[in-house]
Q: What sequence folds into this?
């Protein structure tokens, strides 16, 4: 494919602090209650915001609702439903679908751990519920997956660190593999929907595909399910570190790329070795040209960009890879210009940020903090960029649902972009109603858009919208808004709600052989007070359902109980999710339906957990008779059914870690019960170094095997202790000799102590501290009440200087009064 070389005028980079009068940042009047990262625009005009603390709190989501005047700066926060159990991701793929639901897939982090999770979930904003989504079959990793919502509304997702992609079937929560001819790995890529319905991608040449000078790009065609060459980007946009370390230093990151209203894609780059490059893709011609390099060594190694209503691109850059401080710039098609930075973000790196184009034309910025701010750009949109309304009813009723049609409802761009970690597209229509008398602003919830394309031109498109039940009545103006650009207002009249009702249902999960429930909520509209009889259809085989009550009068709730046969999911089988339909029929024959999800899971099989995921035994000398004391590990049944333990073992290639008893193997642990295993570390007769192993239990639990990582270090310098056995008669004393040997020049003080001493016996050392090689006399003093018997006394020597502790078990024989007492080896 033909490409142009860099035009001389594109090399000009204009820099000044306030590029345009009126370009300002404004902090939110009401900060969120928790640090916020990812942000998405719900189709009712609210902002869905994800808590990002790198902990279990990352399962939480919040909602920013604009005030009655449509101000997000003065908006208020509320918490919405948290994600399914076990899912608390950061850096994931997803976006808002055509029905208004939010899909979230993967996560580079889960519960703050870098695990590249393959979990997923879908959020229903009407029912305020999340439903878990299983990954495509065989996909072990999703992580910070790339993705895009296609023009037909289907979510396209990448398999992390592999070549394939998958298409999401929302109805059945299932996947179909596609794009199997992709020549490069899905790593750190930024996928962008184009007006021709294809998806543009810049190649990153990861792993064995590394090419220090690679500049490839490619297109995914939904019509064929295949990728094709999109030509050279002319300049390198991914970070190859070609001139400062090569493959071993490369981050493979790219910056965001966004489609502008003029039909060009502005793509930004990352560069470990200097300033990042930019490139421009001309969609109509299918060619790339070079853009200007970033000034002052800046680049975007992951970071946000957003298209302003004036067509310019706002972006967040920083020096090097993952460095700070941050600099904000604007691209107007000719020049890169530095613009003000949010007052609270100057110490950020670019990857902290997220941007979202708001319906009022402002841009919301978050940076994994509570300091969210709003950018107000200068200038405005061109008239031919606006949506146009062709048909909508001029008389609307509160609580009613209507269809609206026209052109350019999806805007000319996707709105905002990032690298691979976040997708924040807003190329879908919102409906805004402004009351003529009060000026108050109301957003209707839009859903079931006829397209999720971009720059749809003169094609007639449509969507449905739900008028809020609490909207002010009377003369009003209605607008369709796409990416902050409104249509011309259409005069309408809003009437009081006609009597009616709506139904919502929460998702339900049922274990094989058990029951589960969904809460059905009926909302009365316009004084509706009739009885509505409930039914459910689409149940999978082996599942029955019942309502309590079977009908709701006016407003209220009913509990829908599902009962599953024990055969619906085999023991240990994967969960299966089904769409089921709730139907309500009023006494007057008015029918309402809604679809929600029922998930069937295998019967509980218990769950076991060690009291630690890893343990470091510290440093011991690599010499004879060198070993630590036993360390106790506790295994707990954290589930609700008994678990049978098959085996407990230690994996230790050189035998440095030794399992030394415990009561776990062959037992059955009841729910909440525990057992213990003992392990010690011994680098005896090993060369100095660091040793690793693991404590492993296999069992009938769902999370078997459970593992504790073991680590210990053998040192060339250190000490060992040993001691004679001893006897003592009750009411008298006995003695033995403790000997310390050293190696490698060890000469630090070692403090002596004793544990597991029998009742009625005391132990003293003379001297109590040894420096270097030497001996100490152990004196055992037994009271007249000391019980006769043979006891193992644990003798310890501890070096505060090296942190090393050596132990030795000596036998102490306590004899009854009158028996002979002697010390012996």
A:
């Amino acid at each position: 494919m033909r490409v142009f070389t860099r035009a001389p005028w594109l090399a000009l980079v204009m820099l000044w602090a306030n590029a345009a009068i009126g370009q300002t940042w404004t902090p939110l009047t009401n900060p969120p209650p928790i640090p916020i990262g990812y942000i998405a625009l719900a189709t009712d005009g609210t902002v869905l915001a994800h808590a990002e603390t790198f902990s279990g709190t990352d399962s939480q989501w919040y909602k920013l609702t604009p005030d009655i005047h449509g101000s997000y700066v003065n908006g208020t926060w509320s918490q919405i439903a948290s994600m399914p159990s076990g899912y608390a991701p950061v850096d994931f793929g997803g976006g808002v679908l055509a029905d208004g639901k939010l899909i979230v897939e993967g996560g580079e982090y889960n519960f703050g751990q870098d695990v590249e999770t393959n979990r997923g979930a879908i959020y229903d904003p009407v029912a305020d519920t999340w439903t878990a989504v299983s990954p495509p079959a065989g996909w072990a990793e999703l992580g910070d997956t790339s993705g895009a919502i296609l023009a037909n509304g289907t979510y396209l997702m990448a398999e992390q660190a592999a070549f394939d992609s998958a298409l999401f079937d929302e109805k059945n929560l299932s996947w179909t593999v596609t794009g199997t001819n992709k020549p490069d790995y899905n790593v750190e890529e930024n996928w962008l929907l184009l007006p021709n319905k294809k998806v543009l991608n810049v190649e990153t040449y990861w792993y064995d595909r590394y090419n220090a000078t690679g500049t490839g790009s490619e297109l995914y065609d939904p019509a064929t399910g295949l990728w094709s060459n999109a030509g050279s980007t002319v300049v390198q946009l991914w970070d190859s570190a070609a001139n400062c370390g090569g493959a071993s230093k490369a981050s493979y990151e790219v910056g965001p790329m966004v489609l502008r209203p003029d039909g060009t894609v502005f793509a930004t780059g990352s560069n470990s070795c200097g300033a990042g490059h930019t490139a421009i893709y001309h969609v109509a011609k299918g060619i790339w040209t070079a853009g200007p390099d970033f000034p002052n060594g800046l680049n975007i190694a992951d970071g946000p960009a957003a298209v302003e209503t004036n067509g310019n691109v706002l972006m967040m850059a920083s020096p090097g890879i993952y460095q700070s401080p941050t600099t904000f710039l604007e691209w107007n098609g000719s020049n890169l210009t530095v613009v003000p930075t949010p007052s609270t973000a100057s110490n950020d790196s670019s990857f902290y940020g997220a941007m979202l184009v708001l319906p009022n034309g402002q841009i919301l910025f978050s940076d994994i903090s509570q300091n969210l701010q709003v950018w107000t750009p200068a200038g405005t949109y061109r008239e031919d960029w606006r949506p146009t309304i062709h048909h909508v009813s001029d008389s609307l009723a509160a609580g009613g649902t209507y269809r609206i049609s026209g052109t350019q409802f999806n805007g000319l761009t996707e709105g905002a972009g990032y690298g691979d970690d976040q997708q924040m597209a807003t190329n879908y229509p919102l409906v805004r109603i402004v009351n003529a008398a009060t000026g108050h602003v109301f957003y209707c919830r839009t859903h079931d858009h006829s397209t999720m394309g971009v720059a749809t031109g003169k094609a007639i498109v449509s969507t449905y919208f739900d008028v809020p039940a609490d909207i002010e009545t009377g003369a009003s103006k209605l607008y369709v808004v796409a990416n902050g650009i409104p249509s011309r207002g259409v005069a309408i009249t809003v009437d009081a709600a006609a009597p009616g009702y709506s139904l919502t249902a929460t998702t339900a999960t049922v274990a094989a052989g058990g029951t589960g429930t969904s809460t059905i909520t009926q909302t009365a509209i316009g004084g509706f007070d009739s009885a509505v009889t409930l039914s459910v259809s689409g149940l999978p085989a082996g599942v029955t359902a019942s309502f309590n009550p079977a009908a709701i009068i006016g407003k209220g709730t009913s509990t829908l109980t599902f009962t599953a046969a024990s055969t619906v999911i085999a023991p240990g089988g994967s969960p299966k999710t089904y769409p089921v339909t709730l139907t309500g029929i009023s006494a007057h024959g008015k029918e309402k339906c809604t679809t929600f999800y029922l998930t069937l899971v295998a019967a509980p099989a218990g769950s076991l957990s060690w009291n630690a995921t890893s343990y470091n035994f510290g440093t011991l000398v690599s010499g004879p008779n060198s070993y630590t004391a036993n360390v106790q590990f506790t295994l707990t049944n954290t589930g609700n059914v008994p678990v049978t333990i098959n085996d407990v073992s230690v994996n230790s290639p050189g035998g440095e870690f030794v399992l030394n008893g415990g009561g776990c193997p062959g037992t059955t642990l009841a729910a909440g019960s525990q057992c213990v295993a003992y392990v010690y570390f011994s680098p005896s007769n090993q060369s100095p170094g660091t040793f690793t192993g693991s404590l492993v239990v296999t069992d009938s639990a769902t999370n078997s095997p459970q593992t504790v990582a073991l680590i210990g270090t053998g040192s060339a310098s250190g000490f060992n202790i040993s001691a004679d056995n001893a006897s003592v008669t009750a009411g008298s004393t006995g003695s033995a000799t403790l000997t310390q040997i050293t190696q490698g020049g060890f000469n630090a003080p070692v403090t002596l102590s004793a544990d597991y001493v029998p009742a009625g016996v005391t132990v003293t050392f003379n001297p109590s501290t040894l420096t270097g090689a030497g001996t100490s006399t152990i004196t055992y003093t037994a009271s007249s009440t000391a019980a006769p018997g043979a006891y193992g006394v644990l003798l310890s020597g501890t070096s505060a200087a090296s942190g090393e502790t050596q132990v030795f078990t000596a036998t102490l024989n306590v004899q009854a009064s009158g028996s002979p007492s002697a010390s012996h080896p």
Notes: The chain has a mean pLDDT of 92. DSSP finds no helices and 69 strands in the chain. The radius of gyration is 34 Å.
